[in-house]
Write a structure and sequence with these properties.
The protein is an alpha/beta fold and 367 residues long. It contains 14 helices and 13 strands. It comes from Sporofaciens musculi.
Length: 367
């Protein structure tokens, strides 16, 4: 069978979001090569028989030297492994590996979720990214788009010359994230599940927690995720000690913590398609999210949760207070509606089927 190389910037990108696709490809007899920095979740795939190649990547750094090393790494890797097709995920992996695939005429599929389009970064960084996207994506066999803004933006850059598919993010595994009865907590629990860094909305979550705890002491605000911005360690310490927020660490399996929550707050500034919202919704938990592409698609405002203006703490507080004022029955009905939405629109099997279809079509043309 074929050799398929899959690359991303973190091991959890494979385990949390692509596991079903990788398992399906493995079952079909393909040889899988997983390329990312080592993390404990990669062991799951090596135990299946997938091969692993470690790599060094500065995911958000702007060092030209480090990025050049990554470009050279991919060049050597592709020459050595000679894959039949490459699947790329996350920005740097998609751009630099895609660039080398294009140079070496290796078919590749790009999934580059979450465009950086903040006002602060709109000048120099955006100009650089536009060049990199053109270089990395112009020879792809298929672009997988997670939301319409991403699709329109990249297609314009590529002058509508590449084949693409629209997908509902990574989808959600409905058999793994099963519906759970709504909790009858004495204190409402609001989850934050994301990396601890500004653009994921941690600042807004904390400011909201400060205000809400002052007015509604019987609420809990629990943070799960890694410190991508170490400055938050000290900033959060006093708030944790003061009982404003709680820190649940990094969890391999979030399902028990989703089950005990009443809602999730996802105040992210930009997303491809947020898995945080999809997974909480699948388990019947309402979602309060920023009104941006990649979040709004997963929330039906007023029915499965609430949307609020991105970066607007007052709007977030208003949405949380609206949720608090609901009855237990209304919150439970909101959670059931969220589950139904996932079943109709975000089943991960749909994403896996689209990938398999594109991969098989590409491999047939190459043989």
């Amino acid at each position: 069978m074929s050799v398929i190389l899959v690359t991303a910037s973190k091991d959890n990108n494979f385990y949390n979001f692509r596991k079903e696709l990788i398992l399906k490809l493995h079952e079909m007899g393909h040889e899988l090569i997983m390329v990312c920095p080592y993390g404990r979740k990669i062991d799951y795939f090596t135990q299946l028989g997938c091969r692993f190649v470690d790599m060094d990547i500065d995911r958000r750094g702007t060092s030209v030297v480090k990025d050049l090393r990554l470009v050279i790494f991919y060049r050597k890797l592709l020459k050595r492994e000679k894959p039949d097709i490459v699947l790329t995920y996350t920005t740097k992996c998609s751009v630099y590996c895609g660039f080398q695939c294009g140079r070496m005429n290796i078919p590749y599929i790009v999934n580059n979720a979450g465009l950086v389009e903040s006002e602060k970064e709109a000048s120099i960084l955006q100009r650089i990214l536009r060049v990199l996207y053109r270089i990395g994506f112009y020879k792809t066999k298929c672009m997988m788009y997670q939301n319409t803004r991403e699709r329109d933006y990249v297609n314009t850059l590529l002058k509508n010359r590449v084949h693409y598919r629209d997908i509902p993010g990574s989808g959600v595994n409905l058999e793994e994230f099963t519906y759970r009865a709504y909790p009858k907590n004495d204190r409402l629990i609001f989850n934050y599940v994301a990396r601890i860094v500004d653009f994921k909305g941690i600042k807004e979550f904390i400011e909201c927690a400060k205000y809400i705890k002052g007015r509604y002491p019987d609420t809990r605000f629990v943070i799960y995720g890694d410190y991508d911005d170490d400055s938050y360690r000290d900033r959060m310490k006093a708030l944790i000690e003061g009982g404003i927020i709680e820190y649940g660490g990094i969890q391999m399996d979030m399902k028990p913590y989703i089950e005990q929550a009443n809602a999730v707050i996802h105040a992210s500034y930009y997303e491809g398609m947020t898995n945080v919202v999809l997974e909480h919704s699948a388990m019947g938990r309402p979602c309060i999210g920023s009104d941006i592409p990649g979040v709004r698609e997963g929330i039906e405002d007023g029915k499965t949760g609430y949307l609020f203006e991105v970066k607007n703490v007052d709007a977030l507080i208003k949405a949380v207070e609206k949720f608090i004022c609901l009855s237990d029955e209304e919150r439970a009905l909101m959670g059931k509606a969220a589950r139904l939405k996932m079943e109709k629109e975000f089943d991960r099997n749909m994403v896996t089927d689209i990938y398999i279809e594109e991969i098989e079509q590409i491999l047939r043309k190459c043989t």
